TrEMBL record:
InterPro entries the record matches: DUF2939
Name assigned to this protein: DUF2939 domain-containing protein
Gene source species: Acinetobacter oleivorans (strain JCM 16667 / KCTC 23045 / DR1)
Top-rank lineage group of the source organism: Bacteria
Amino acid sequence: MNKKMIGVIFGLIILIFGYLYASPYIILNSIKNALKENDSEKVSAYIDYTSVRQSLKDQMNAYMLKEITTKEANGWEALGAMMASTLAEKMVDAAVTPEGMTLMLQGKDLRKSLTGNREDTPKERTDTPKIEYRTRYLSMNIFEVTFKNKENDSDVKIIMERDGLSWKIKKIVLPMDEINPKQKLEPTTIPTVEKIPESETPPMIEPTTTFNFSGVQKGAKLESCYHDPCSIARVMEFKLIKQTPTESNIELTLVGGSRGWDAKQIEWNHEAHKIQIQCSITKPTLQIEDQVTIVPLNNSGVPGVLWSDAETYMQACHNYTGDMDAGIQQYGYNVQDS
């Protein structure tokens, strides 16, 4: 092979890797142009609506669960929160449309997006929103973009995932304190009643938390590469031991293994072991034999020594393998070190 051919091949490799790296920025530029033109159809081409709807529902449910569990609430308040959760999911279904997503990504009033109110003033229709963009790679296949509207100081964070040679918006992370769906829905969902004597106050009704165990069914693989070598585990058996409205206890039978960061071959131990996991927004716990670990999922970041436990928990309880900080925020965790 002559030097000219080697140069051509080397140049093609550089072009391919250059495109793979630059591709999310190219897609983001297309989205920005579509937003400036208020072209909802073009924006829609880059959105995975099923995934986005689920991510918004999870955020709103987690927010309302956090609200009801961080303060003392009577039975009526808990009932109202559950009703609000049901209506919030319907509200998300109605709002996650091309027009609603365009409003949301433009950083306009988030309440308009989530309540289906599309009646903008003429000025809002014609003015180009002043948006500031912050971007970063979370991994080779996951890209994060923060849209900040300078006019109303609202942030919308999107998570894009590689889709072949293109990218799709899979998740949208909203500032829930700004939207406050529970507050928005309370006036119409919580009935006005006469004061009830304390002895007759209905018992506390616990809100339901939905966990997703699809990522740890038989045959699934768990992987953590915080340190070299990477820690690998294959699920041999899944058991749901106990389930309540707010917690789920599962047991996994695993076969462990490891591989180097750059290696493809996995060295398996061939000896199965069991772990118990308590899926709980307030007390996420892993137990291996007699060792019990409460995983401190909070905005301060997970300690490196517990990173593998945190990744295992998030995949087991939420089928989540993305950025840890984004996942903690998405599902509403605020568990401090014990």
